[in-house]
Amino acid sequence: MKPFFILFFFILQVPFAFATTQESNDLFEQLFEEHALVMLLLDPDTGEIKAANPAASDFYGYSRQTLTQMNIASINALPPDAVAEERKLAALEDRNYFVFSHILSDGTTKTVRVSSIPIIYRDEPTLFSIITDISDYRATQASLWHYQNRLEQMVAQQTEQIATQKNHQLIITSLIIIVLGAGLATMWFVLTKSRRTEYELQLERKRLDEIIRGTHVGTWEWHIPSGELVINERWAEILGYQKHELIPASFETWKKLCHSEDFAHASKEIDAAFNDSNPFYECEFRMLHKDGFWVWILAKGKIMEWDRDQNPIRMAGTHQDINETKRLYLQFEHMAHTDTLTGALNRVSFNQRADIVLAQARQQGAHFALLFIDLDGFKKINDTYGHDAGDSVLVETTKRMGQSIRNSDTLARLGGDEFAVILEYTSHSEDAARVAEKIISSLNQPFAIDDQQHAHLSASIGIACYPDHGESVEQLLNCSDAAMYYAKKSLKGGTYAVCDPDNHATTSNNRGKQSL
């Protein structure tokens, strides 16, 4: 199901981001209607439900007509202030999803994960939301912590009982010296009770071990001064090993298997637990599987014992395999920031990157250039050879432009046949012009459609430089867009134009410079 969901989401991006044809809308609507995932289309301003698929009707218990007459706020069980707090928390944790409580028609409440992206559907801004029921996952997570806390409480109680038993034994020994006969009988009674207590403790530990095995998590206990690490079978199984292959285990065993970049972060979290008044530890990191790939692990733990100087002696916790969840998260994050056809950054990511470059330039007093690129002749390729050929040309175009710029520069597809490039630390328009000439030259080479046919296109490029042509990203985009339009219309394309604050432009191509 998960791989199919990934494929569906991948296909779904194209109609929403770039499709302008009725066929694309029909394809989306077919997928929307037939897919088993709960999907809603919302008005981004009011929260009104514009459309719901059959899976949403089945999940919420309302008819689809009833759902389209409702507001998402009437389904959300959280009050507005709690919803706002969850949105702030998602932004703080850099999550692209929210966790809410949704009320079904029968009054029951489900914990759901809501993944939403803004789209243009039927020429209107729309919020496309996928709702996933995670009630069972949250219940399992809560149960795990319940059993862990129960284990800690019971171990503490049993430890206290053993200490009490030892005190009783000292008292009884003293009584034996005074009254030998009565003391012998009393000693026999205490020893018998002690054995019974120890036996019951062993049974209790066995029961708790079975509970932990039922939660399917790895457990570990770390003796900090010696570095000795005690693990269970599941801890090893997560990494493809049998337990005996990793015994004797130590802190160095974990360090060796942990990804070097993640180990530095995990070490900081451990140090924080050592030094903080709250001795709990939680961290995500990658560990090397026996077969050579990385497995994402969620580690949780607590310091169980301190010495007289408040130095940690013993720490215990769990390992949980979150590889699939992490893989989906990283893939969704990548898809949200890249153009699914060409692999270049999409418009949203370009704007984010441009804001970062602008902030750095302001702080450092640096310069950069922005190139607005529109392909000449791309529509003719689509009309002549078909959209598949056009997509192939777009992919090759992106590859050639990427080879024409530095690794530190930014290439993005803004939509259709429009691209943009950010040239960092570029002080003069002449330097940007040389890059523009290199891009135009690379695109002038024929594009192979098949073994016998070749297509030709070029590009019109507008150049704007910070801070000469604008103090904001919007000003630079408008300026470069105007220069590109001048290069396409007035100069018949295949060249570039540099804008200036007086709405004039100077142009250049391989035949030399011209001016208005």
Automatic annotation (TrEMBL):
NCBIfam families linked: GGDEF (TIGR00254), sensory_box (TIGR00229)
CDD domains assigned: GGDEF (cd01949), PAS (cd00130)
Domain GGDEF intervals: 366-501
SMART domains in UniProt: GGDEF (SM00267), PAC (SM00086), PAS (SM00091)
Transmembrane segments: 170-191
Ribosomal protein recorded as keyword: no
Protein's UniProt name: Diguanylate cyclase
Protein species of origin: Salinivibrio sharmensis
Matching PROSITE patterns: GGDEF, PAC, PAS
Pfam families, alphabetized: GGDEF, PAS_3, PAS_9
